[in-house]
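User: I'm new to structure prediction. If I give you an amino acid sequence, what do you actually give back? Let's try with this one:
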Amino acid sequence: MFEAGKPKRWRGNRPSIRSGWTLANFVNQGGEEWEVYTLPARDGSGWLNIKLVACGLVPVKANYWIAWFQVEERFADSDDFVKLQTQRPELFRHVQKMVGDRDA
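Assistant: Good question. You get back a string of structure tokens that encode the predicted 3D arrangement of the chain. For your 104 residues, that looks like this:
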């Protein structure tokens, strides 16, 4: 039951391993545990799809979908890219280091 004044919490949804996603990393950030999944673009374009999944209940947002363009070494502009940077900057920095972003 909903309690007034208590923030809602969410749990992440893991992607299907059968569809090609790989568990690339596990992050404990600020007391929250996250799994980082990756899926290279099937067309060989150089895009790497990244899904961050909260393992437990977290406030605000429990799944982030972002993409890294390996050819130009940059992230795709998206709502989740902006939200990840603003809502969980330390988690974002971990992903930057994971993909080799020079701005990390």
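You can read the tokens as a compact description of the fold. Here is one thing that stands out. The CA atoms of residues 26 and 35 lie 5 Å apart.
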